[in-house]
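If it is no trouble, can you show me the amino acids of a protein and the tokens describing how it folds?
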Amino acid sequence: MSADRSPFTLLPVFQELTADDPREVGGYRLYARLGAGGMGRVYLSYTPGGRPVALKVVRPELAEDPEFRARFAQEVASARRIHGLFTAQVVDAGVETATPWLATTYVPGPSLHQVVQRFGPLPERTVLLLIAGIAEALQAIHATGVVHRDLKPGNVLIAADGPRVIDFGIARAADASALTGAGLRIGSPAYMAPEQAMGRAATPATDVHALGALAVHVAGGIPPFGNGPDPAALYRTVHEEPDLSRVPEGLHELLLRCLAKQPEHRPTTAEVIAAARNHPAVGGHLRFGEDWLPHPLTSQLTRHADLPQEPAEAPTALVPRPGGDTAETVLAPYPDATLASTYAPTLTALSPGPGLPAPPASSFAAPSGSATSAAPRPGTADGAGRRRTLGRTALTAAVALAIGAAGMALVLDDPAAVDAAPADASDSPSPGAPTAPPAPGGAPASTAPTSTAPSGTSPSASAPTGGYSAAYRAVELTAADSGYEFDLASGKVVPIDSATWFVGRTENGFLHPEGADTYLGRDAGLGVAECLEGLATRPAADLRFSAVGPRGAFCLRSPDGRNLAVVRVLSTADADGPVRVSVDHYHRNG
């Protein structure tokens, strides 16, 4: 590994909108997707005056619950009164709309979850400043009568001038019996306080416990009660002492007080701030200067400030008309199952009539030199192709079915999306196609992915399993070092930060996208059925090589549930050497 290239860079910040994303919410035009989580999806938009905002749209199952909607409106009203310098200010909301949404100020920085995942534990002084800043945010939140209830690394964003706490109050809105009875988990077990784990009332002391657990994770790399299955983590939270063995000793006293089993034994937020200020590592001064973060992380923050300046466009179809001209039809983000009935009348009316041969329904692409092969859209790196998801591919197939009988040629404005999930992993790359970058020393990081499926079978020919169909199977990939990751959508090895649906690796373990669910299989025979059962009953976030095993297997499901990957480990390295895996990629039907 060369000294001037760090493997710990962050994921792409701005993701292209897919066909099932809206283009406008509450009068706000959407520019990119920022992420997704248990409560909903988050998008980048701008106020009328040009200030960037993060706009969260809640999940449909929450939107349909009357109790959630009532509590959401109440909590948004309370959140509007919160004006802490270390919180993301609420600027607008739609509590009466069919799908509720909330807009807060955009914070130009990654979450603590992303930071620790990519950079590892942070220095003692940085952790103390984080503790003080988050404690001050909790003071502002608690002053309005709100308890956060879901403080975790994913709900703390890092900016150049300090942390910002987000999502305060929303977890309380979702804490309704109708939803929890349906299996929706409120809160994150690794950071829950004992009283919260036992179903008792949450108080400001509950958030202090979460702050202590968060600080242990940031300082040591693992939460104080482990990363195991939820029931085990909750049991340890209630009955066992926290593990601070990886945390600098100078932080033990403060964090053990925050993690006290009884709420009344924990310090107040004011006492937490005072303890951080008086710690020798900060010299009596809590200042978020230019040096409060490690330099490699500071250099990454500028990527979050390079905002897309053009709104995302809706997918369009170019439909041929008699005489050779075309008509452009905007394809709104309807569910795939309704596309045929929605668009068939419109597209049939534009039919060029007899004489135009119908293209195969399974393959639609722009003609060579077509205007649909335009330059990359603003706000994406190297074009949007490497960040596309299967949503656009499903849209292509559904519209193709709707118009195939009418004998019309369909060209999406984004033809490369058809290739987002290879039909056959054994296909040879086309001439001039990009290959994996060379590894240090001149050796290729990976040859073209090859299939090790049994002779006479196609990697994509398996029948649907558990609602998922195979995009490819048994593709062997090798990452030369931690500067490369496995692009699960394409079945290729790419430089880090080149993919949004990926498995990355560090010197001692595997990485996965934030929000993805993971499960460790019993052995290399792991299949879809076991994956789905394990993800539902025994999820596991620890993907270190020691946990997975030298010939183990794990699976991960994308945050939107559409993609499932089974990764079988063929070989790992003790240091930052080659890691070889075999990957099966499935996508959900419908």
Confidence is low (pLDDT under 50) at residues 1-10, 176-185, 315-464. The CA atoms of residues 388 and 417 lie 7 Å apart. The two ends are 43 Å apart (CA to CA).
